[in-house]
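Sample entry (362 residues):
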Amino acid sequence: MNEPNVRVLLLCAAFLGTGAATTLSVPPAPPRLPKIPIVELRILPLLMIAAILVMFAAVFPDILFSSRTEAAISLGAARPFEMLLLLLLPRGVAIGYCILLMMRICSLVKNNRIPLFEMLLLLPGLIYFNPVALSRQALSTGVLALFFILSRYRLLDRRWIVGFLPLAALFLAPALSNITRYEMRNDWFPFAPDFDVHQNAAVALQLLDAEGFRWGSHLLASLSTVLPSELKLFESSHLLASERLKGLYDQTNISLPAFVEFFIDFGWIGLFALTYLVSRALRAVQTRAYFHRRSDLWIIGASCIVGGDWLALNRGPFLGNAPVLIIFLIGWTFCYCVAVKSRQSKLLKPESYSRHGAVPAN
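Predicted structure, serialized as tokens:
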């Protein structure tokens, strides 16, 4: 599986070319940010939820840090209600808690307060998510934030920033895979990939030759992975990363990159069209980061959003990763806080582009 595969290289090249062509275009000035209603939330109910989450983590540490499969084995396959109660419900509460806390942070920023205490309160919610996935996302966010900052001070051409992430994901992941070795993988090691991009794409093409295109069913099944198994609309047989692959390759947590899902669902047309649409959405976020007020919070927020989306595109199923969703929401919160501050101090003039970087308009 580690030998070069021409079709896999063409598939990766098509994805990179479509994303790069969209990324390297000169963006126009963005419109005004839309007004989003702010909901005032009291701190006492949030503190009570945080205390409940911490108490549950202290009472059931084994359930907290185990996967859904491990929890099903320990609880027994005949006890779906206990599994839903002890595993899925607390994590759902943690996601809702983080969202409510971000809403309160936005309301405090609107009232000219620095919500440092509320930011610390995110920790009880974040402990319920995979630390490996969170560390990968933090690494991706940090790298992208560094490139944003270098671009802001004209030390790096801004047009290559977003294009760097898919290159890193596609070419660094196989090298990291060879270093960590799947059979000796430590789940707490932040750089240990589940299944590298090239091998996953090759597996997808092999099964595609045998079974044909899925015409949307695989992508819908991937989107439904965020639901509890009792509520799934699609069976695991719709997923290429199913029990068949686990039996063939003796791996766990096998998932396809989203751009491979685009291909097996809709062919080459789907790969180009969907990659273009997603790249345009990422480009819009990047454009706002450059034309907006020069704020470190905005840079971090844009890094979270763009880095999270690229990580989902390259390293796993589309929107099927709760830690990526949480980091995305945190990034959106940072961006929105800066937007509120900017509206309060009136809209600034956009930056004008030059050959060497952004120059503030006079």
